[in-house]
């Protein structure tokens, strides 16, 4: 079990990288605490697998170091790093029984037979595999085989960390939600550092205590699911997390007022530091925007209203830009013209994509 430190880590697949665009992974400094449950979340191509492969030792970084506790492992092979990995597709021995498959990583390391047997029973019970322990793996479904792969990853109690690379890809959708919460329970039971790579926000937010969001080769925010929702540090995080994602509107800001077109929006904070050359945007989640009949607020045109069970969401348009808003109970809109009212507590201001803290009216940054 280990704390994992990424120290000035960067990676370029091309030789002699010159500028930021040449790097698949831009410089990262990060500490994964011992025993933490982390998700590495981002769209395809953002560099997740590259980072995971650097931690596991499959890829040597162009720059920087990887430390497991105090030990520099940058030049150590995957085998000597003492980590377990679970991949997208099952890695099982078809000719062996489920019990033999689960025992394999322990047998390989000469763990005594009675300890192996106890651990296999424990892991099988956590993954609900007990009833198939003596069946041959070859006869099982892809779901079951992937559970065995998960079990093989989890069975060694002494690993520095377990790395999961999109482990639920082959799992049947109706079993996915169940396995997601099972993995979370397993993390609590085993106290091992776990890093879970996914492009699926639901998987990341269910599994992880801390989510590391990547975009275009860089970490744009590390935070709890609540922090990512309440205070996205980058417009990408606002847009990528949430369903629907955060509304982003170009604006102009003067002190504590934002101007979106001709509409003035009062802000809770004061923004004195924005400079002229920066691209300024206002971000607010649909949950904090109310659709109202035409009147005060941002003038919009309603395209449609979706009933998503727990709420009604309006899809609206403003100057060719699509936005989403909540529809309060009892509101009915005649025709297409309507207004949006923003809750100032949840309005964020971004400069060139990055959150600007602003100052509270008392003069403190917040
Ligand atoms: N072996 C390689 N050689 C050259 N470029 C690579 C190599 N592996 C990945 N890349 C590039 O590095 C970037 C990051 O890829 P990476 O696979 O790490 O992203 P990812 O977020 O894991 O995406 P996915 O979920 O699709 O695997 C991409 O632009 C990809 O094309």
From TrEMBL:
SUPFAM superfamilies: MOP-like, P-loop containing nucleoside triphosphate hydrolases
InterPro entries: AAA+_ATPase, ABC_transporter-like_ATP-bd, ABC_transpr_FbpC, ABC_transpr_MalK/UgpC-like, Mo/tungstate-bd_C_term_dom, NA-bd_OB-fold, OB_MalK-like, P-loop_NTPase
Single Gene Ontology MF annotation: ATP binding
Keywords, sorted A to Z: ATP-binding, Cell membrane, Membrane, Nucleotide-binding, Transport
Domain called ABC transporter: residue spans: 4-241
Family classification: Belongs to the ABC transporter superfamily.
Protein name: ABC transporter ATP-binding protein
Organism classification: Bacteria, Pseudomonadati, Pseudomonadota, Alphaproteobacteria, Hyphomicrobiales
